[in-house]
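Is this the right way to post structure tokens for a design question? Let me know if I should format differently. Anyway, here goes:
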């Protein structure tokens, strides 16, 4: 009988328990999901004007794009200029510290860009920036 008991114990010790490894993998996955920053884009690519004094913004931003043909894009969808205020107010609840960055095409109408910036300020945002590309000379 003692031989049977030994062979049974040897079979038990040969298996590898993967449960702790799976726990660590799931904890790491949750950590990376929680700590990753989600970038919100305006939804359209614009040809920004160039400026020598352009600087990079590090904070989380609310991006609004104004195209050359007069469209306003916010949160990957085209919106009317009159609804920019409501959209910015909603996005400010998600990112209270974020600033508004207007990405205007270099051929966009100045009046429309000013209207968009005014709507953002009416939504309670004090920091409204105009995006530009760094000049490459």
């Amino acid at each position: 009988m003692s031989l049977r008991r030994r062979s049974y114990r040897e079979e038990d010790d040969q298996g590898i328990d993967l449960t702790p490894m799976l726990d660590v993998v799931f904890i790491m996955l949750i950590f990376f999901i929680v700590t990753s920053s989600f970038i919100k884009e305006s939804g359209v690519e614009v040809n920004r004007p160039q400026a020598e004094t352009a600087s990079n913004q590090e904070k989380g931003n609310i991006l609004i794009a104004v195209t050359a043909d007069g469209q306003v894009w916010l949160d990957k969808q085209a919106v009317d200029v009159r609804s920019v205020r409501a959209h910015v107010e909603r996005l400010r609840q998600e990112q209270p510290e974020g600033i508004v960055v207007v990405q205007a095409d270099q051929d966009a109408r100045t009046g429309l860009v000013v209207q968009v910036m005014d709507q953002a300020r009416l939504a309670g945002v004090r920091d409204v920036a105009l995006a530009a590309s760094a000049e490459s000379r």
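Format looks fine. Someone answered above. Worth noting: The chain has a mean pLDDT of 79. The longest helix spans residues 19-35.
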